[in-house]
Amino acid sequence: MTTKKSRKSNFITVSVIILVGIVLIFSGFYTYWNSAPAEQTCASCHEISSRVTSLSHSAHREVSCNACHGTALSNGFHSLKEKSMMVVGHLRGKNADDVKMNEERYLAVMKSCARCHTSEFANWKSGGHSATYADIFLDAKHNSTEQLNYDCLRCHGMFYGNSIDELVDNQTTQGPWNLTDKKKATQATIPCSACHTVHTDGDIKQTPDYANPSEIFYDRKSKVPEVSLYVRSEKTQVPVDLLSKPNITHEGKNVMVSDDLLMRNCVQCHAPNTFHVSATSDDRTPRGVHEGLSCMACHEPHSNDARNSCIKCHPAISNCNLDVTTMNTTYADVKSPNNIHWVSCADCHTDGSRQSAFVKSGPSL
Question: How many whole angstroms separate alpha carbon 255 and alpha carbon 261?
Fold first, then answer.
């Protein structure tokens, strides 16, 4: 006769066996999902398939999806909830053919970028583009002279999903200013994805064929830079070669602008006013003696460092007998007499002596 105690013991035993079975099945499925090719996992859902297809043409095509996006358990309960809601949305037939990541996910992916692109990330961290929400939106000097508005988020906070009213509690020029969400204070306003996307078309870096000089020297094919701009209003990345070349004027005349595609990204944020007038708003397009130069001629691409840029082209003493290394050429100083972005010959040669120097010495840098 079966006793009550033995029935309880049998129930516990069966329950443990079932629980262990469930764990083993889940673990096996979880392991398979994270190790199988994307075509058999992520791409099997129509919401993700287009993204997987674009990845297959990119320089990151040999990188697994979870290397950047993580797994269902990579961030504990939070990521499990996020991935579960995606499954629920799929089962409910939610129309999500074009999956959009929110700002939180973009910032999480940036941490993945840093694991492989350590040098680029370190340079970005040391430059102005790593500014946080607190750096940008709690700057008393700026906020007291220029009123915060919706357009600030076009460059500083491209991935922020709400309005400026929901970000800062005060939009007047009279402080104090506070972020409504304190956690955003240390978050980056211009993460890697502002200019880069993992899914951009590109080739995997490889060693050239040294037996074929055309692959390693002047005749090698130029490639479209693997850079794009995230357009906040459209919530999409636009490849840099599809951006239009800026049309900028100075004193009624067109300024010659570099054909460098990378500069088209720069000018989207460092842009002139509505009338495209040089040096208005945040425009820094070179003119004067540096007209036609690209931003990349002086600035390092990730740190924006330009401290050693002059020596690349100029001797310490120019043909005009000026020590260019001691000249105040910085953009940061509003009183700079020789702002590097639009310094002209007349800024130094006010008496017209530049012409005679040119005739005697020939052209100088």
Answer: 17
